[in-house]
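Aim 2 progress update. The chain analyzed this quarter is reproduced below.
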Amino acid sequence: MNKKLKVLIVGGGMYVTGKGTNNFGTILPALFKASTKINIDEIVLVVTNTKSAKYAKSRFNKINKLFKTKINFKSFPEKNNNVNEYKKVLRLFKPDAAIVCVPDHLHYKITSYLLKQKIHCLVVKPLTDNIKDGKKLVDLANRNKLLGLVEFHKRLDEANIIIKNKI
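Predicted structure tokens:
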């Protein structure tokens, strides 16, 4: 793939940055690994407060150095805390795709907004917290001819693999 991809991440907690742990989470390292096969030019991460944005930037810089890559990165908000910062950032950034990793009850609100803006979305499980909203998101993605996918990282956890194999 020759196109330079721009990826938006909404959310910056444990799965994205490793917040509260000694590791880097799963989402940022996965994007760095993917960048060895596809051309990821820029990642923009948006959270609700400046403290988390600064933390994400420091984690990103460490991973960028570790992987010896030169992916561009910005984190928002830069100045004021804002729960709707993703809407502002979306207008400025215009990503090719978005990864939604926020608390479950916010999945529908944020993902439906992104799909309405014609952005391909990957949502960290569950898609929504109810079937009705899940069906709406599937319909919205299909109508707009977009990818609307769910990421199931738990399928790779060693404990879950052992249980699956035992069953």
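The two ends are 40 Å apart (CA to CA). The mean pLDDT is 90. These observations will guide the mutagenesis experiments scheduled for the next reporting period.
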